[in-house]
UniProtKB/TrEMBL annotation:
Pfam families: GATase_6 (PF13522), Pribosyltran (PF00156). The active site is at 12 (nucleophile). Mg(2+) binds at residues 293, 355-356. Coiled coil: none annotated. It is an enzyme of class 2 (transferase). In the C-terminal section; belongs to the purine/pyrimidine phosphoribosyltransferase family. It catalyses: 5-phospho-beta-D-ribosylamine + L-glutamate + diphosphate = 5-phospho-alpha-D-ribose 1-diphosphate + L-glutamine + H2O. Keywords: 4Fe-4S, Glutamine amidotransferase, Glycosyltransferase, Iron, Iron-sulfur, Magnesium, Metal-binding, Purine biosynthesis, Transferase. Residues 12-230 form the Glutamine amidotransferase type-2 domain. This is Amidophosphoribosyltransferase.
């Protein structure tokens, strides 16, 4: 993953288990498979039927949890979270799951996404006397649920969900029940699986494979599952509307071995590369992809164009964890540490360099330079998604508009800035077709707002990009 140097970061990943004696260990492994979705912090909450227990901390999964800690998290059900800090700040109190205790029992919450009306709701709650402990938008949901405490818990949760707007995949857990909810447009991915008689829930299906679980189905937009020792129930808290799943899950975020909404990510990326080759052909000797997320699209481009795919760029797998690097200079150093051009492959060649996206342009410029320094005669950059011109309000850090190269420059200017011999992007139609392959149904078509500016939900006047809030 080059997210931390590209300026393109998924906010979170969530994983839950109900009905397994080793639920905390399974959640640990599940979160490990979702580590690419957040590296800043992680947490697990477990229930043994009588008490909720929490362990969380800053860092990668294996830095946060020791064996002893996991053994202390005894219980038959767990929810877990990996976090990239955008909404709110990176403080310990914002690491999820958030756990609230009251006389009537505990409530744990893990959230993937971003609420566009969180600020308005915070103002309202504080005006009514609530004291918020975190700067995270997720806490708002706990307060809304508590405010509806006169209702049965299921109803209090659906009441709270009806008040929030934006993108959310939620795992909530009390001592004796787990609630799994997807927003009415299903912007973030969320799947259900089973492991023997246990239920598992994950942001991505790759985590099911790691723990040996079998995929069951997607959590539908506007659906909430209630899981307990008595079984599983499905509640609709919103009328079905067209799903607008985040297209960037296919382009970049999800792991290639995941199936998102039933479609394999690697296969989707290959189709993006193939369509890109048809839309933007070029006379070249080799095709290479920027590891890891662009390899699938590069293979697709090579297959469709008949130009051989080669490993012109390799990733140094043993570079330690690099934190979000604040300055451009440091970001550029990060690229150098992580990637190398293979001189023996690219020297004297006309190279097609396929990348999944361009955010600030600094990464592309570095890689083009690296290929030329390794002797490439020409470097033609082909991007397997449309230009990112708009910020995301739904939980992805696509940087603010001022930093997005495509929001501020023409194609020719971008080509010059990154030093490419030519530059072309996949069209929005090409991306849609590559993902959905002409599917005609209610589920057809994903969110493409960062490319088109057509946001699938209302954007409130005070909605800020999470990156700007931090
Ligand atoms: S705006 Fe872009 S990154 Fe955000 S949800 Fe939509 S497609 Fe995904």
């Amino acid at each position: 993953m080059l997210g931390e140097i590209k300026g393109l970061n998924e906010e979170c990943g969530i994983f839950g288990v109900w009905g397994h004696p080793d639920s905390a260990q399974l959640t640990y492994y599940g979160l490990h498979a979702l580590q690419h979705r957040g590296q800043e912090g992680a947490g697990i909450v477990t229930t043994d039927g009588g008490q909720l227990k929490l362990a969380k901390g800053h860092g990668l999964i294996n830095e946060v949890f020791s064996e002893n800690q996991l053994e202390d998290l005894q219980g038959h059900a767990s929810i877990g979270h990996v976090r990239y800090a955008t909404a709110g700040d990176g403080g310990y109190e914002n690491i999820q799951p958030l756990l609230f205790r009251s006389q009537t029992g505990g409530l744990a919450l893990a959230h993937n996404g971003n609420l566009v009306n969180a600020q308005a709701l915070k103002n309202q709650l504080e005006g009514q006397g609530s004291i918020l402990q975190t700067t995270s938008d997720t806490e708002v949901v706990a307060h809304l649920i508590k405010r509806a405490r006169h209702l049965p818990l299921e109803q209090a949760i659906t009441e709270a969900l009806s008040m929030i707007k934006g993108a959310y995949a939620f795992l909530l857990m009390t001592e004796d029940r787990m609630f799994v909810a997807n927003d009415p447009r299903g912007l973030r991915p969320l799947s259900l699986g089973h492991l023997g008689g246990s239920w598992v829930v994950s942001s991505e299906t790759c985590a099911f494979d790691i723990v040996g679980a079998t995929y069951e189905r997607e959590i539908d937009p506007g659906e909430m599952l209630v899981i307990s020792d008595d079984g599983i129930d499905s509640i609709r808290f919103s009328a079905p509307i067209q799903r607008t799943l985040c297209s960037m899950e296919y382009v970049y975020f999800s792991r290639p071995d995941s199936n998102v909404d039933g479609k394999n990510v690697h296969a989707s990326r290959k189709r993006m590369g193939k369509t890109l080759a048809e839309e933007a052909p070029v006379d070249a000797d080799v095709v290479t992809g920027v590891p890891d997320s662009s390899i699938s699209a590069a293979i697709g481009y090579a297959e469709a164009s008949g130009i051989p795919y080669e490993l012109g760029l390799i990733k140094n797998r043993y570079v330690g964890r690099t934190f979000i690097q604040p300055s451009q200079e440091l970001r550029e150093q990060g690229v150098k540490m992580k990637l190398s051009a293979v001189r023996g492959i690219v020297e004297g060649k006309k190279v097609v360099m396929v990348d999944d996206s361009i955010v600030r342009g600094t990464t592309s410029r570095r890689i083009v330079k690296m290929l030329k320094e390794a002797g490439a005669a020409e470097v033609h950059v082909r991007i397997a998604s449309p230009p990112i011109k708009n910020p995301c309000y739904y939980g992805i850090d696509t940087s603010n508009s001022g930093e997005l190269i495509a929001a501020n420059h023409s194609l020719q200017e971008m080509e010059e800035q990154i030093g490419a011999d030519s530059l072309a992007f996949l069209s929005t139609e090409g991306l849609n077709e590559s993902i959905y392959q002409g599917e005609e149904s209610l589920r057809h078509g994903g969110c493409m707002a960062c490319f088109t500016g057509n946001y699938p939900t209302e954007i409130y006047p005070n909605t800020m990009h999470p990156y700007e809030k931090a």
